[in-house]
Amino acid sequence: MSFADRLQHAWYQGHPALRLLMPLELLYRRVVKAKRGRFLDGRSAAYRAAVPIIVVGNITVGGTGKTPLILWLIEHCRNRGLRVGVVSRGYGAKPPTLPWRVLPEQPAEQSGDEPLLIVQRTGVPLMIDPDRSRAVRQLLETEPLDLILSDDGLQHYRLARDLELVLIDAVRGLGNGRCLPAGPLREPAERLESVDAVLLNGAEADSANGYAFALKPVALVELCSGERWPLDHFPSGQQLHAVAGIGNPQRFFTTLETLHWRPIPHAFADHAAYSSEQLKFSPDLPLVMTEKDAVKCRPFAPPGWSYLQVQAVPSGAFVTWFDGQLTRLLPDHT
Which run of H or E residues covers position 58? Predict the structure, then answer.
């Protein structure tokens, strides 16, 4: 188990040694509070775009389902006749220049795995830049848009936003409730009181804590051919190699188990880069990975490798609420 894995385990399962990090946590909290405070009271300027900005983020380190929700939001807004763009930090990307427009034929090393996944699935105009304000400006100069989704960026206060949507893993919650490095929180838990909506990934029903949100498996997709296979492609009880380089690999392995397969888990670091040699496992069994991993493995994948495609399913109450927000933000378009 890597140091990062041990630290994550401690954050969510508890460990007395975390008390040694409390002085650093207090310093981190002061810095985060001061940073946000400068934008709230106007001491630091935030860029206000000509179109509404919807931020999809989290306050915890690790995966919570942001990318599937972004995909759902793109489709939902398009179905209402809206022209949608996306900006992203492009974690791990190495583009020639910034801002960088992500295109479906680009390598993942250049564009970043999550931005490339979003563009390949939707064809949406997407710009990456750690300075999301600059990415928004560039996107608006090149595309006629009605609104822009910010993939992550909850803590990027230089970009003014009209809606803040926060995802939380319903199983793991906020861990020990402490901020970095003593816990998994990027901001104190009370930050949730100021966001517009909280979605709980894996919750069975809406609650006072937020809207229910689920990730539904829909198909297996072969990397080489793009052929879609039904979820009964492998028989019940099939043993297979499961590859996940995401923020919470266990959620992927558990999903495969709910499909009545027997995954042999191979967890990698979030945004991991792969080679064909790394993914040669024994015994020789079917290999299934996440879609995020597939965008990096497709160039060298042999026939038979597949990824599990999932779709976001927010609760009906959230859909109704969100449609109301779109009407408020874009009264002439909805």
Answer: none
Query: Tokens 């564009």 identify what position?
Result: 111
Give the distance, in angstroms, between the CA of residue 294 and the centroid of all CA atoms in the same chain.
Answer: 15
Q: What are phi and psi of 217, to 5 degrees?
A: -65, 135
Would you state the pLDDT for residue 84? 98
Largest CA distance in the chain: 61
DSSP string, 144-195: --SEEEEES-TT-TTB--SEEEEEEETTTTTTTSPBTTTSSBSS-GGGGGGS
Residue 275 CB coordination number (10 Å): 10
Those residues whose C-beta lies under 8 Å from the C-beta of residue 106, and which sit 6 or more positions away, are 116
> pTM for the whole thing?
0.95
Task: Compute the distance between CA of residue 289 and CA of residue 307 in angstroms, rounded to an integer.
Answer: 5
Q: Is 96 exposed, middle or buried (0-12, 13-18, 19+ CB in 10 A)?
A: exposed
Q: Return d(Cα 148, Cα 152) in angstroms, integer.
A: 12
Which 3 state secondary structure label does DSSP give 173?
A: coil
| Pairing mode of beta strands 126-128, 84-88 | parallel
CB 197 within 8 A of CB 321: yes
In which element (H, E) is residue 307 found?
Answer: strand 306-314
pLDDT of amino acid 1: 61
Query: pLDDT averaged over consecutive 10-residue blocks of the chain (334 residues)?
Result: 77 91 96 95 95 97 92 98 97 95 96 97 98 97 97 94 97 95 96 98 96 97 97 97 94 97 96 93 97 96 98 98 98 79
Helix (H, G, I), strand (E, B) or coil at 24: helix
Say if CB 147 and CB 53 are below 8 A apart.
Answer: yes
Distance CA 119, CA 123 (A): 5
